[in-house]
Specification:
Length: 351
């Protein structure tokens, strides 16, 4: 007869291996208080034999955001946190071995980043010039969750690869940094209720598939329903979806966001928010096809940070998609505005 005080069943083999990988990872660096919770490395920026120009994504966006902030005196270079690269063991926390092996084929990577000539480049170059910057950004997203819990907020000036799931990349997203940073938070930060606010112009189908029917994760996704990825399977896993039409303008967008955040507040009380803050909602973006003004993006970010601060919920922001050269300036202006409104403290305020 079984004892009534039987110990709980052990975690499945796959789950205990995942925990072991997370606990042995070196990505959770100790960051001194003299640094701001702004995560970036010059290695984020992609310069790839000019092939990066064949995709509308501005692959130097991340560096330009930081240069605006440092040149204009809002942040000192020495106050920026440099993450480590996510290694294979880190990536296996979410990704399958088969998927990671598929990235050793340049043709496969070319289809994920939507630049066909990449298929002709030797894979060692693809790894160094394209996938290494992505792995650095993944390290940044994972570290940002720890920093957000310690400081109340964090910004990874990169990441937000929300089209990538455990077994499939796409839409310029080769690694599932959102899913990875959440799995690390579950184990290392003792988080059990997490909210994803995805305001990129595109549906975040990657994390939606990874957290299908996982009650610990609540997903609010506001996106243009008339553009890529048209992932109807992933849509059923969105807890709260706001589908926009192409051409949606600033006032309507912000009104819908206010309503969505109110509903979200009444439905779910998270311990951590992952905010995917794509700027492809900007008017003129060739892929987002929405008509949001730069001021509208700045207001959007302020609303999300205020939503978090009013409820005392730590928030990490990822910069995600944005396909115009003006995106970097808008993101920098938004970060400056958050500091001016006392929603974050930048390096100049820490000093």
């Amino acid at each position: 007869m079984a004892s009534s005080s039987a110990s709980p069943a052990p975690a499945p083999a796959g789950e205990s291996l995942r925990q072991k990988r997370i606990l042995s990872s070196k990505l959770y660096l100790e960051v001194p208080s003299s640094k701001a919770p702004v995560v970036y490395s010059p290695a984020y920026d992609i310069s790839f034999l000019g092939l990066e120009k064949l995709h509308p994504f501005d692959s130097a966006k991340w560096g330009r955001i930081c240069r605006y902030l440092t040149r204009e005196g809002h942040l000192e270079k020495k106050q920026v946190v440099e993450p480590l690269e996510a290694c294979k063991e880190d990536l296996l926390v979410v990704h399958t071995e088969a998927y990671l092996n598929s990235l050793k084929c340049s043709f496969r990577v070319a289809s994920i980043v939507e630049v066909p000539p990449v298929s002709l480049v030797p894979n060692w170059i693809v790894q160094k010039k394209l996938l290494y910057p992505f792995r650095k950004q993944v390290g940044g997203s994972i570290l940002s969750a720890k920093l957000a819990l310690e400081r109340g907020w964090a910004i990874n000036v990169g990441g937000g690869f929300h089209h990538c799931s455990a077994e499939e990349g796409g839409g310029f997203c080769a690694y599932a940094d959102i899913s990875l940073c959440i799995q690390f938070a579950f184990v290392r930060l003792n988080i059990s209720r997490l909210l994803i606010i995805d305001l990129d112009a595109h549906q975040g189908n990657g994390h939606e598939k990874d957290f299908a029917n996982d009650g610990r994760v609540y997903i609010l996704d506001m996106y243009n329903a008339g553009i890529y990825p048209f992932d109807f399977t992933a849509k059923q896993y969105i807890d709260q979806k706001v589908e926009l039409a192409s051409g949606t303008k600033t006032d309507e967008y912000l009104e819908l966001l206010d309503k969505a955040l109110e509903v979200c507040k009444s439905r779910f009380q998270p311990q951590l928010i992952v905010y995917n803050a794509g700027t492809d909602i900007l008017d003129g973006d060739p892929l987002g096809r929405l008509k949001i003004s730069p001021e509208g993006v700045i207001t959007r970010d302020e609303k999300v940070f205020r939503f978090a601060k009013d409820q005392n919920i730590p928030l990490l922001m990822l910069t995600s998609g944005g396909y115009m050269k003006s995106s970097a300036r808008v993101i920098a202006d938004s970060i400056i505005n958050l500091a001016n409104k006392n929603l974050i403290e930048l390096g100049s305020q820490l000093g």
